[in-house]
Amino acid sequence: MKVKLKNVFVVYFLVSVIGLMYALLQLGQPCDCSQHLRSASDLMHGKDKKISQLLSEVKRLQVRGKGPELEGQALPIIYAITPTYARLVQKAELVRMSQTFLHVKNFHWIVVEDSPVKTQLVSELLAQSGLRFTHLHTETPKEQKLKESDPNWLKPRGVEQRNLALQWLRENRELSEEGVVYFADDDNTYSLRLFDEIRSTKRVSVWPVGLVGGLRFERPLVEKGRVVGFYTAWKPNRPFPMDMAGFAIALQLLLANREARFDMLAERGYLESSLLQSLVSIEELEPRADNCTKVRRGTGSQDSWVLSMVLGVQWIKWVRAGDQDSWVLGVGNMKFCL
Amino acid sequence: ITLSNPHLWQQASGVAPKVIQNYVYSRPPPWSDTLPTIFIITPTYTRPVQKAELTRLANTFLHVQNLHWVVVEDSPRRTNLVSNLLEKAGLNFTHLNVESPQSLKMNGSRIPSHKPRGTLQRNLGLHWLRDSFNKTQPPEGVVYFADDDNTYSLELFEEMRYTRRVSVWPVAFAGGLRYESPIVSPAGKVVGWKVVFDPNRPFAIDMAGFAVSIRLILERPQATFKLEGIKGGYQESSLLKDLVTMDGLEPKAANCTKVLVWHTRTERPMLGNEGKHGFSDLRMEV
């Protein structure tokens, strides 16, 4: 059959015109794209959220994954021993501690619960923290526990737990491993600089502590780079009139002196001394925070004493006194009987 | 992230360690161009625990990407303590100050009262935001009022980041309960408040329990915290009523089933041994 070129053109022309008409008719029709836009935007938000979650996960894993063998110069590991016990604010305390510790390189958190079992709250918190940790538990014997009505200074707190942590270190670490042990109670605040300073501890290092002993701060007195006494107002005749947060001990010293531990029966305020006196003498203490001497610059660049940023903060508890609600200043925030 | 040079550790015993001059702290994750910014407004005032509180807040915020900290001091002048802390922290920050009139001041010796505190400071923070950003091209972001004595989980910030208008979630230890929480219907809308203290408040929620998108803040320049005639517990409502209605709230934290923020409070430290004339050296910044 002969196909005329003219017919081909006509068909082509007609098809094009029809197509064009159809397209033109589609213009101006309402098109509901908002649904697509919203879902696309949600999708993007979802993805962004996932990305930021993954990024923080990566960061956490990086902190955890880095061991001393990956460092150029192996940094001594800082072991922070934290006794803890169940009470309302426990989770909040541990959460914010973990947020601080995540910034510290080569860090190992030893958390010891005053409990017959490992609680789910602490187990989950540690697992999600992104930190290297050891989770222990031991229950303070009943006679040693504070009763509800006892003031919090009546019986020593956290003793069994800290001793258990020391035992764990002695059973699981070698003399060859470099490390520093620090007792970090769960209600204090720690500056990041503190950890830089204590890492170089050879025996026992000491520094000022803020807001303890009824003072704005307590500190060791230093002359010519050696500790010669202590600046404190409360029981200054103690062998080591310091707060638990004011010193750190080299791991090797603890491993070499396997019997050194806290004495449960120590008189009030003597807990720190009960451990330290078997480890070191005052002359051997290593002062930190710029020897606590170079402070008196007129304009007050108090940076050198900025390390007094370990302080004991306690909780205001809102308790019902009889049938009335009243504010009671937090006495006994570390009641181990709870 | 690098710490101080390990070569400075002393080699021989008996020699005082060299003074470490430069500390390089943790830095926050790099700023992203696409992630919405979280503006944190923190009122603060001078008292012994101030530095500790701001330190631990900084330690928390250093983990959060795209965070801008607006610290407003209740003070006639910006103090050195806060200035130095902010500069060294490594965070993006804005440092403001406005002094509360004497009647509203929260000084160290007063028992906490129900007078609204931090109001002027928070309003100044809002004012700065409105001054700094163009209403016609608002940045993507959210505003959160974070008091300096609370505890915040890192998850909280990711929950609030994508707030469209006002998002809400439970707060532990608020209103005399283990936690206060919005009541969320199965459809995912806020329908009430699971609280004991004055449940008839328009927004029975703690300052730490909500966040507002920047866009909304800029759209409603008249929305501020009110000072006059505000009963205890109504501060939050005085702002939120000008921004949103209950059904416009976005519940977060898995439909308000998780606690991601704790209304912790810090006890005043016992400084009895300072005596009347002071004992410890005042030149030491604590």
From TrEMBL, chain A:
Subcellular location(s) of the protein: Endomembrane system; Golgi apparatus membrane
Catalytic activity: 3-O-(beta-D-galactosyl-(1->3)-beta-D-galactosyl-(1->4)-beta-D-xylosyl)-L-seryl-[protein] + UDP-alpha-D-glucuronate = 3-O-(beta-D-GlcA-(1->3)-beta-D-Gal-(1->3)-beta-D-Gal-(1->4)-beta-D-Xyl)-L-seryl-[protein] + UDP + H(+)
Membrane topology: Single-pass type II membrane protein
UniProt key word Mitochondrion: no
Superkingdom of origin: Eukaryota
Site (Interaction with galactose moiety of substrate glycoprotein): 218
Transmembrane segments: 7-25
GO-annotated biological processes: carbohydrate metabolic process; chondroitin sulfate proteoglycan biosynthetic process
Cofactor: Mn(2+)
Family annotation (SUPFAM superfamilies): Nucleotide-diphospho-sugar transferases (SSF53448)
A cellular-component GO term for this protein: Golgi membrane
Keywords: Disulfide bond, Glycoprotein, Golgi apparatus, Manganese, Membrane, Metal-binding, Signal-anchor, Transferase, Transmembrane, Transmembrane helix
Glycosylation site list: 291
Secretion signal span: none
Catalytic site: 272
Pathway assigned to this chain's UniProt record: Protein modification; protein glycosylation
Residues noted as binding Mn(2+) in the record, renumbered to the chain: 187
GO MF term list: galactosylgalactosylxylosylprotein 3-beta-glucuronosyltransferase activity; metal ion binding
EC number(s) on file: 2.4.1.135
Name of the protein in its database record: Galactosylgalactosylxylosylprotein 3-beta-glucuronosyltransferase
Gene source species: Gopherus agassizii (Agassiz's desert tortoise)
UniProtKB/TrEMBL annotation, chain B:
Pathway where it operates: Protein modification; protein glycosylation
Membrane-topology annotation of the record: Single-pass type II membrane protein
Feature type site, description Interaction with galactose moiety of substrate glycoprotein: 180, 273
Catalytic activity: 3-O-(beta-D-galactosyl-(1->3)-beta-D-galactosyl-(1->4)-beta-D-xylosyl)-L-seryl-[protein] + UDP-alpha-D-glucuronate = 3-O-(beta-D-GlcA-(1->3)-beta-D-Gal-(1->3)-beta-D-Gal-(1->4)-beta-D-Xyl)-L-seryl-[protein] + UDP + H(+)
Record-level GO BP terms: carbohydrate metabolic process; chondroitin sulfate proteoglycan biosynthetic process
Superkingdom per UniProt: Eukaryota
Residue positions with a glycan: 255
Pfam families, sorted: Glyco_transf_43
InterPro entries: Glyco_trans_43, Nucleotide-diphossugar_trans
Gene3D superfamilies in the cross-refs: Spore Coat Polysaccharide Biosynthesis Protein SpsA, Chain A (3.90.550.10)
Uppermost EC category: transferase
Residue positions of the active site: 236 (proton donor/acceptor)
Recorded coiled-coil stretches: none
Cofactors, names only: Mn(2+)
Record localization: Endomembrane system; Golgi apparatus membrane
Keywords, comma-separated and alphabetical: Glycoprotein, Golgi apparatus, Manganese, Membrane, Metal-binding, Signal-anchor, Transferase, Transmembrane, Transmembrane helix
Primary localization class, coarse: membrane
Sequence positions that bind UDP-alpha-D-glucuronate: 43-45, 74, 117, 122, 147-149, 263-265
A single GO cellular-component term on record: Golgi membrane
GO molecular function, one term: galactosylgalactosylxylosylprotein 3-beta-glucuronosyltransferase activity
Family the UniProt entry places it in: Belongs to the glycosyltransferase 43 family.
Name by which UniProt lists this protein: Galactosylgalactosylxylosylprotein 3-beta-glucuronosyltransferase
Source organism per UniProt: Gopherus agassizii
